[in-house]
Amino acid sequence: MPAAVSVFDGHGRPAVARAIRAARRGLRARLNRDAASSPPSTVLVDVLADALIDRCAQAAADGDAAALMEWVEATCAARLDVPAVRKLLLGIGPALTDTVGEHGFDALTSRLEILVQRLSLRQTVTGADTVDELDLLLSDMVARVESNDPITAEHCRAVSAWSARIAHRLSLSRDEATFVARGGLIHDVGKSITPHEILQAPRRLTAEEWVIMREHVITGHEILREHPPLREFAPIVRSHHEHFDGCGYPDQLDRSRLPIAVRIVTVADAFNAMIGRRPYRTPHSPDRATFELRRCAGTQFDPNVVAALLDVVGGGYEPTFHEPAVREGALAC
Prior knowledge:
Blueprint: H1 14-22, H2 24-35, H3 39-62, H4 66-78, H5 84-100, H6 105-119, H7 130-148, H8 150-169, H9 174-185, H10 196-199, H11 207-214, H12 216-225, H13 234-239, H14 260-275, H15 286-295, H16 303-313
């Protein structure tokens, strides 16, 4: 039998990367089961397992584990007091081999062993702190969405990333940027109970279906109100379809009553919705999406947030409150 070809041989293996992502649920369950030796460990393990799987998939696609190793080193440095982290990191290689087949993951296991041993991960058991509990709740919210519609969950993760980039471009503090990114991650949590046939309709929705679709902001707000640690994100969830000029929904709030976090997530949501997958159309090009953002700046969107997003994607834009925008055909929400 010929030797397995390593995915880290410099050539990249996109098919292997796709297989890793497709096997996410099984991999996460195995990592959690093998790594979480006690209840205080499960919170962090559940959060880190998803991140580790994503980074392993990217490393496989790139044929280079350097970025993965940097992340592992940073994770160890930040989480020395959580013993399950060591089991999580050392278990990913065997889990990948068992789940997606022989692709040279033994080499990955060896590299992780050396790195983790060098960092001397401590074996002290500590309780979960507030941030870990919050991250677990956030992960649970995304899992709810994913169980109903994986495409919406994918969109939520992307909106979180775009929101963080916009926040940094606007010079928000690290804590503020983290808050916005977390709000973006769960902005569509209400869609966890939106009928799947509406979310996945291969056509434009009827007027009646739009009424149901738009209820997701109210539903999401109610879901977060049931979880005290998440209540601070409720305004983002409820108001991310409000418009800068007060013509959005559900409360017709205008610029004077929309916090910057809401304005950022609104722009990130619209941009990713345009460039992302939709059942009824192919993705728009980034140029088309940025054109729409410019067109609706000052009416649907905060012009300064639009300017920040366009700067992030390299579009360049000087905001103005006087730029004309065409209301007819404005971006669907």
